[in-house]
Amino acid sequence: MALPGWTGRFAKQRRLVQLGFFAVFAVLPLFDLFRFDFTVSRFYFFRHEIWLDEWTLIWLALMFAMWLVAAASLILGRVYCAYACPQMVFSEYANDLDALAKKVVRRISLKGRERAAVRVVTLALLLPFSILFSLLFMAYFAPLPEVIRRLASFDVSPWIGLLGLLTAVLFFLDFAFLREKFCRSVCPYGLLQGILEDGRSLHVAYSEATGPCIQCNLCTRVCPMEIDIREGSFQIECTRCGNCIDACDLILGKRKRPGLLAFDFGRAGLKQWDAKRALVGISTVGFGVALVLAIAFRQDVAFRLSPVYMEQATGQTAFAESRFLLRATNKGKAPVDLVVTSDGLPKDVVLDGLADPSVPAGTEKRFTITVRVPRAEVASSVVPFTLTVKAKDQSETFPAALFVGGRRG
Predict the structure, then answer these.
(1) Quick one: 26 and 169 in the same domain?
(2) Cα-only R_g, the chain
(3) Are residues 167 and 256 in the same domain?
(4) What is the pTM of this model?
(5) Domain endpoint, select from 256, 291, 326
(6) Residue 374, by phi and psi: left (phi above 0), alpha (psi -120 to 50) or beta?
(7) Using CA atoms, how far apart are residues 181 and 162, in angstroms rounded to an integer?
(8) Which of 48, 58, 209, 357 has the fewest other C-beta atoms within 10 Å?
(9) 350 pairs with which residues across the strands?
(10) Dmax of the chain from CA atoms?
(11) Nearest-angstrom CA–CA distance, 36 and 141
(12) Domain tally for the chain?
């Protein structure tokens, strides 16, 4: 026999979609499709390794995700809550565990203690599921094998160990006591989606055109948000889960009557786009295009050059020299070799500091570059020049200067 949450046409459809989104939720961090790795300060987006100092790319990715959900909310209302939101999906899994616990307890004669036994069995089942969900959640912030190792060894160090433990406890308390109550009264995102939807968004329409309501109130009892859809199709709490439609079809179907509830888009049409829809649509496409272009033209190697100190030549020194700190960041997947050249200095210039020019993949390496020029070939107290750093197909030129004491410009 199927669990109660899996009966009904729309309930089955919703639960299958939820399984798909749950699979996506688990797969995204495992294959580096979307993951913040705080252990190495990286953001992974569809296998592109983005460093956390590349805030523009991270901001674009988050904005695109936000506007994508906003576009879905404008068209489909709060359907994200019922079909994809981890809080609601996990809450329904917890309800399934309740139903499973009741089936288990029914086979045991406990003489009036059935309710307490169901609660104990449910809590026992929730504990391993809470740990599993905590592992999947923490995989977004650290590699899953590292998370499992830390939790298995009861490592309570910050970030992975302690945060993973706290997350497991919070998940357990959430599934045991809150569930849909969080969605009904606390979730700010649900309120935001309610603001976006309007008369042309997907909604549950109620009509007595085929006959009057028989007042069985089953539609109200099966609603996870505890609303009566007959009081209005656009109540902000409605997540478009379809439970009420399934309930009405079930009861009136036994009387050979069509149900009074159905999904409807109202006056929606391609020719009826308003300013709000245009803004959300253009913003979503714009952020998506900007994100794709930013990743496509992203440079794997970056350079930063800054002076360390300028040693002024005197009459007793044969050379004038300056030193610079070169920081080379290799964000690619293969090592690169650096080449540094100068322009604007005498031909006898000497560049030191690149004895080992290789920069390993995924690292930042620092070099102290020394520019040394024979003092006899310098005719001015300040000699401007440029340093060019090259690696693979990338190069960058930096302005610099050589200061020589005892000279007059």
Answers:
(1) yes
(2) 32
(3) no
(4) 0.73
(5) 291
(6) beta
(7) 27
(8) 209
(9) 372
(10) 110
(11) 5
(12) 3
- Output the pLDDT for position 272: 59
Mean pLDDT (whole number) for 233-244: 89
Helices (H), 197-242: 218-221
- 312 with 371, same domain? yes
Q: How confident is the model at residue 216 (pLDDT cuts 50, 70, 90)?
A: very high
Instruction: Tell me: do 11 and 112 sit in the same domain.
Output: yes
Say yes or no: 310 and 356 in one domain: yes
Between the CA of residue 115 and those of 21, 92, 123, 126, 129, what are the distances in Å? 33, 20, 12, 16, 21
Angle between helices 55-76 and 275-296 (to 10 degrees): 150
Residue 398 binned pLDDT confidence (cut-offs 50, 70, 90): very high
What pLDDT is attached to residue 171? 92
For residues 195 and 78, give the distance between their C-alpha atoms in angstroms, rounded to a whole number. 10
Dist CA 190 CA 205 (whole Å): 20
Q: Per-residue pLDDT averaged across 50-55, rounded?
A: 78
Domain membership flag for residue 408: no
Lateral strand order in the sheet of 363-374: 301-311, 319-330, 363-374, 350-352
Residues 230, 174 share a domain: no
Residue-wise pLDDT for 322-334, tens only, equals 899 999 999 888 8
Q: Which of 291, 323, 347 is the last residue of a domain?
A: 291
Phi, psi (5° rounding) for residue 39? Answer: -70, -25
pLDDT reported for residue 159: 67
Residues 262 and 275 in one domain: no
Residue 239 included in any domain: yes
Please, what is the angle between helix 161-173 and helix 114-138, to 10°? 150
Do 255 and 282 share a domain, yes or no? Answer: no
**CA torsion angle 48 52 55 57 (round to 10):** 0
CA neighbor of 389 nearest in space, from 299, 278, 290, 258: 299
Contact 41, 52 (CB under 8 A): yes
d(CA 95, CA 243): 14
Q: Which two tokens stand for residue 212?
A: 């009057």
For residue 309, name the pLDDT band (cuts at 50, 70, 90).
Answer: low
Question: CA 352 to CA 87: how far, in whole Å?
Answer: 58
Range of the domain at 12: 4-191+271-291
Instruction: Flag whether 296 is in a domain.
Output: no
Residue 399 falls inside a structural domain: yes
Side chain identity, residue 19: L
